Amino acid sequence: MKMANKESSLSGLQWISIGVSIVLFLVLYFGFSTKSPEQKKVEMVRSQNLEATSIMNLLNEAGDRLSEESAAVLHSLEADLRDTDTDSLKVPSYEAMSRFWYQEGEYSIAGHYAEKIAEILQSEQSWSIAGTTHALALQKETEEDKRNYSFQRAVNAFESAISINPGNVQHKLNLA
Predict the structure, then answer these.
(1) In 3D, which of 120, 92, 151 has the Cα closest to residue 159?
(2) What pTM does this model have?
(3) Per-residue pLDDT in tens (0 to 9) along the chain, 176 residues
(4) Do 167 and 151 meet the contact criterion of CB atoms below 8 Å apart?
(5) Rounded to 5 degrees, what are φ and ψ at 53?
(6) Which of 116, 130, 137, 155 is close enough to 108 for a disulfide, judged by CB 3.0 to 4.6 Å?
């Protein structure tokens, strides 16, 4: 009889140990940050970098430099885009927007619209075009923010093209 009582108290002690271990684990896991101050600083700089190079910032800056005639063409293209409700019908509008910004010398913005096309079509060729447009922007741009924006976008576009057709060496060369 004493033996059975000892086993049950030992079992209770084991349950208490398990419970304490779980509570301790949860406190350590959720109670303390695992990121060093240096890593937090790097992440904060990255998030600020993304803010500084968003497509909206690029569009606002470029829009301010447009002539009245070009601004009128842009407003017409934007109206066409707003009037289209399905993705597949937006492709010609995105192509027109990309072409417009390319002719204006705003290659980063042209690449953005080429990316929009690639997101809809999900084809190897469309991702390659988006990557090539961003790569051209990378070569032409002098501002570091725009260059960083275009670099990351070009890499992502070429990686997407490679994921669709891993056997195409041209995409790998473009990425390199």
Answers:
(1) 151
(2) 0.65
(3) 455 555 556 688 888 989 999 998 888 888 777 777 777 766 766 655 444 467 787 877 877 788 888 888 888 888 777 887 777 788 888 888 888 888 888 888 888 888 888 888 888 788 888 888 888 888 887 778 778 888 888 888 878 777 776 776 665 666 66
(4) no
(5) -120, 25
(6) 137
**Residue 93, token pair as written in the block:** 């509008």
**Amino acid letter, 27:** V
Tokens of 146: 């725009």
Side chain identity at 163, as an amino acid letter? S
